[in-house]
Amino acid sequence: MTSPASASPLGNRLPSAEDRQIANQLRQILAAHKAGEAHLQVFDPATKKPVDITLTLAMSDLFIQLLRYIGSGDAVTLLPIQQMLTTQQAADLLDVSRPYLIKLIEKGDIAHSMVGRHRRVKAEDLFAFKSARDKARAEALDELMSDSKDLY
Predict the structure, then answer these.
(1) pLDDT higher for 38 or 131?
(2) How does residue 151 score in pLDDT terms, banded at 50, 70 and 90?
(3) Are the C-beta atoms of residues 9 and 77 closer than 8 Å to each other?
(4) pLDDT of res. 14
(5) Whole-angstrom Cα distance, residue 12 to residue 75?
(6) How far apart are CA 42 and CA 40, in angstroms?
(7) Phi and psi for 130 in degrees, rounded to 5?
(8) 89-129 tens-digit pLDDT
(9) Rounded CA gap, 129 and 89, in Å?
(10) Which of 111, 114, 141 lies closest to 129 in space, CA to CA?
(11) What is the structure's pLDDT at 76?
(12) Could you give the count of Cα atoms lying within 13 Å of 93 in the half-sphere of its Cβ?
């Protein structure tokens, strides 16, 4: 994959106004094809010919979500599900302190492995924990809301 000489990576910075504009344009194009598979034609610099690409609905949804964040000016980081994270990275993703994350690991709430004397958490396990935690929080909030309706 090639990029223009003026392009710089988005990973370590916020998107520029031009990045946001391009992301919003591409998001609108993909959203227009949301009813089914998106068919795109891109130029292949290696063969110097156009290439047809078909995006499944799932791929379109993923790109639309990514482009929505970039178009809004948010920084975005992609994380492979099999990625092994340090405890600090895992704590940052959960928005908790590292000592609190260590307590969760020691209680067995989050699976981990040891690399030497360092704990590592698989992103997949961290997201499973986060999903279960968020679900439990939502259920507790729903219960509180229903209890509060009984008071009035």
Answers:
(1) 131
(2) low
(3) no
(4) 86
(5) 8
(6) 6
(7) -60, -40
(8) 999 999 999 999 999 999 999 999 999 999 999 999 999 99
(9) 15
(10) 111
(11) 84
(12) 23
| 38 in Cβ contact with 30 (< 8 Å) | yes
Query: Are the C-beta atoms of residues 110 and 71 closer than 8 Å to each other?
Result: no
pLDDT attached to residue 7: 41
**Amino acid at the residue 50:** P
Phi, psi for residue 14 in degrees, rounded to 5: -80, 150
Residue 120: both structure tokens together: 């590592």
Residue 28: closest CA among 57, 78, 63: 63
Give the amino acid at 80: P
What token pair was written down for 104? 């969760």
Query: Which residues touch 37 (CB under 8 Å, ≥6 apart)?
Result: 54, 55, 56, 57, 60
